[in-house]
Amino acid sequence: MLKIFLQAPQFRFFFAALLVVLSYKASAQSEISGFELQRGDRVVLLGSALAENEQFYNYLEFSLSRHWPERSITFRNLGWSGDNVHGDARSYYTSPPTPFELLISQIKEANPTHVFLAYGSVEAHEGPSGIQAFEEGLEKLMTTFQELNSQVIFLSPIPQFGGASDEFLKQRNQELTRYADQLARFAQKHESVFIDLIKPLSAIGASLSDDGVHLNESGYYHLSDVIEKALGLTHSNGNILISADGKVESPYTVQMESSNLKTGQLVFRVDEPILPKPLPTQAPDGSIQPPVITIKGLKKGFYSLTANGKIVASASANAWASGLPLAQGGTWAQSDHLRQLLNKKDEVFFFKYRPLNRTYIIGFREYEQGRHVKDLEDFNVVLTWLQGQITAAKQPSQVLYELKPVK
Length: 407
Prior knowledge:
- The protein is α/β, with parallel strands linked by helices.
- The strands form three sheets. Strands 1-6-5-4-2-3 form a six-stranded parallel beta sheet, with helices on both faces. It has a five-stranded antiparallel beta sheet with strand order 9-10-15-12-13.
- The chain has helices at 15-23, 49-52, 59-65, 99-110, 131-147, 166-189, 198-204, 217-230, 317-322, 331-353, 358-361, 366-369, 373-393, and strands at residues 3-5, 42-47, 74-77, 114-118, 151-155, 193-195, 240-242, 248-249, 253-260, 265-271, 292-295, 302-307, 310-316, 324-325, 399-405.
- The chain is elongated.
- Strand 7 and strand 8 (248-249) form a beta hairpin.
């Protein structure tokens, strides 16, 4: 059964990207249901720069794994800037292995249960003449994935947002769309998942990239949102409304311990099922809105709100009645800590599988420094420890909120 996932666009983008939105040919538009990662699953992100650069932000791993906070799920980033389905960018000064053999060995070592495959942007530079070689490379990769019994989720290339003339952008995005179409057909042929990134990211626009080619932090935030929604992993925005009579409306479990709106003193606990996704440091397009807490019925004056004893907001009664965005303290601090752990894990893994002096350790000059192979293996101890820390950190802690008048 064909599983192609497209997102409804909001047409806000310049002319070249609009052409991409209108010309995309994939027909089926639906969302998957029942996608789930089990304890012990191993997820690989594979591709060119789109895949490699994700490790600097870790929104995809954060977004996916938070839905199963109690499960230990391993993520490995095998992205390589400039790479294609033949692994050409992985070339070293030694052969064997060939670049493709190296690519396959890295995949087999990771032994993934799931693969997010993000190829096509480099190959699209070849235009129509490169389609056959692209499909041949995909077939070779699929043979390996089938041997490993891996579920493959195909990601389309992202659009180019700028950095060139309108005419070049038009042609470039047409070629990217051509290769996205090919991925969609290939996914259908192999009864695999395909997720379109061109439409939803084009609809948001150039604020997702600083150079017009690669995604920035906000871009990877939205990328993870697109993938989450396509896989059916939706969740509430976490808004909390406390009415004048002390009643609470929230998608989360909220325990009101004490409520006295006349004195402006409230104490309540919040249990969130999953961690909130950290917001980008810059989101100029205004498309990212943090959750809002609204407290009605307060007397005129100013009131401060603490989360686990730390002040997270302070405002007038009118401002509280209108609603205040809340994106700090509590589980937000926990989310920031988790991202730091993910970044450290990816950094350690990077230097394990891509040592800077590879030629001298495991290459054709290993006779000089080959004794350091054991040092690379020792990285596994650190990675195992970090995985335990990550699993513990992604389980949301209960947050105690207290509202008091500012004297």
